[in-house]
Model the fold of this input.
Amino acid sequence: MKCSACENELQKIVVAGITVHACLGECGGLWFDRFQFNKIKLLQPGIGKSLVTIERAEGVKFYRGAEHPCPACKTTLLYRHFFNADWDTEIDQCSKCRGFWIDLAGLAKLQTLPANQRKQAVEKYFNTIINKKLVGMRFRHGDMAEQALILEQIFLFLCPDYNRPNR
Ligand SMILES: [Zn+2]
Ligand SMILES: [Zn+2]
Done:
């Protein structure tokens, strides 16, 4: 399977029984197929946090302005849920196989802050970059609301400090 952003060969990583295909050593993007979704919600928050800070290459330019193909379906283009160039964050989904492509390079950078600043910075990151969009997704039709819920569970898996938006 190839990275949809930089065409690097994705590496399979299993954390707490969750299989993720990661663009290790390049953009650091993560591919979650839909078979992981039900397993993720049963896990302890933050148990997958090592995935956020996997090895990345310095200065990889992964935002090409073009749409990315699904790493699994190959020809299907991913639907872009979120994109924030300033925060190096992108969340895409395949409308065919429903897998998520998650690039949280912006969140990875915050992990290098001293502990007393990190929690607050991570909170701000989620509140300003991610949660507003999730709330927006919830107010769309039923399927979009369901995808928002899955994303919240993935964020919780990746980040113990993640605060879900209020329902
Ligand atoms: Zn990549
Ligand atoms: Zn697909």
Remarks:
- The longest strand covers residues 79-84.
- Strands lie at 11-15, 18-22, 30-32, 79-84, 89-93, 100-104.
- Residues 11-158 form one domain.
- The helical segments are 37-40, 105-110, 115-138, 142-158.
